[in-house]
Specification:
This protein has 208 residues and is an alpha/beta fold. The protein has a single domain (6-207), classed as 3-Layer(aba) Sandwich (Uracil-DNA Glycosylase, subunit E), CATH 3.40.470.10. It has eight helices and seven strands, in the order αβααβββαβααββαα. It has helices spanning 14-21, 56-61, 68-79, 112-129, 139-146, 152-155, 173-178, 182-207; strands at residues 47-51, 87-91, 98-101, 104-107, 133-137, 160-162, 165-170. The strands form two sheets. Strands 2-1-5-7-6 form a five-stranded mixed sheet, sandwiched between helices. Strand 6 (160-162) and strand 7 form a beta hairpin. The radius of gyration is 16 Å and the shape is globular. It starts with 13 loop residues before the first helix and ends with a helix.
Length: 208
C-alpha cells in the first residue's frame, strides 16, 4: 500500500499504525530494505528521540537503535539520568537506505523525497506519543523538522518551539563512533549527555 494520509491513521492505536506502516510502498526503499523499522517505547513518553533512518542491524532485527549507535545512545541516556521507560525512539525514515560495497551494506543518506514519503508515519507518532520534548539526533533529523538552516554543532542543546513541541537538536551517536581519536569521542559523548540532560529538564518542567 502507499503511505496513507495522516487523518487515515487517527482512529488507530500506535501498534495498529506500526502494522500499517509495515506494508508501506510510498517510496522505492521498501524494495531493498528487509523491513520497516517503526518506533518503540511508551505511547505517552515525555521524551522522543528522533534519528535519521535505521541502520544495517536495525533493518535486520526490525527495531530502532539496536546496533552500535543504539548502544552508545543507551549509555548516554543512562549518563544523563533519564529513565528508559520515559523515552520513545524512532527515525524520520522507516526503511534502511544503503549501497552495496562488496558484501557490505553501507548507509546512504535518505533524500527529501524519502523523508516526505515517511512523513505521515512520523506525524502520527508525534500526535499519539505527544512528547514534551523531541530530541533530534543528527542534522538529517533536525533539518527534517526545523529546516535546512539548522547546524547541529552550532545549535545543539538549544530548545526550539516547533508546531507545539519543544525540539532539542543534538549529534547522532554514530557521529561519536566515527570520530577517530579517543579524546574527540569522549568530548562528543559529553556533549550528547549534556543535550539529553537539557531535554530531561525540559520534560520534567513541563510535567510540573
Amino acid at each position: 500500500m502507499a503511505s496513507p494520509r495522516d487523518d487515515d491513521l487517527d482512529r488507530l492505536s500506535l501498534r495498529q499504525v506500526a502494522a500499517r506502516a509495515a506494508t508501506c510502498t510510498a517510496c522505492e526503499l521498501y524494495e531493498s530494505a528487509t523491513q520497516v523499522v517503526f518506533g518503540e517505547g511508551p505511547s505517552k513518553a515525555p521524551i522522543m528521540l528522533l534519528g535519521e533512518q535505521p541502520g544495517d542491524q536495525e533493518d535486520r532485527e526490525g527495531q530502532p537503535f539496536v546496533g552500535p549507535s543504539g548502544r552508545e545512545l543507551d549509555r548516554a541516556i543512562d549518563e544523563a539520568g533519564i529513565d528508559r521507560s520515559d523515552v520513545y525512539v524512532t527515525n524520520v525514515v522507516k526503511h534502511f537506505r544503503f549501497e552495496m560495497r562488496g558484501k557490505r551494506r553501507l548507509h546512504n543518506k535518505p533524500t527529501r523525497r524519502h523523508i516526505e514519503a515517511c512523513r505521515p508515519w512520523l506525524n502520527t507518532e508525534l500526535a499519539k506519543v505527544d512528547p514534551a520534548v523531541i530530541v533530534c539526533l543528527g542534522s538529517s533529523a533536525a533539518q527534517a523538522l526545523l529546516g535546512s538552516g539548522v547546524k547541529v554543532m552550532e545549535d545543539h542543546g538549544v530548545p526550539v518551539d516547533w508546531e507545539g513541541f519543544l525540539v532539542v537538536p543534538t549529534i547522532h551517536p554514530s557521529f561519536i563512533l566515527r570520530t577517530p581519536d579517543h579524546d574527540g569521542r569522549e568530548q562528543l559523548f559529553r556533549l550528547l549527555v549534556s543535550d539529553l540532560g537539557v531535554a530531561a529538564d525540559l520534560a520534567s518542567s513541563r510535567r510540573d
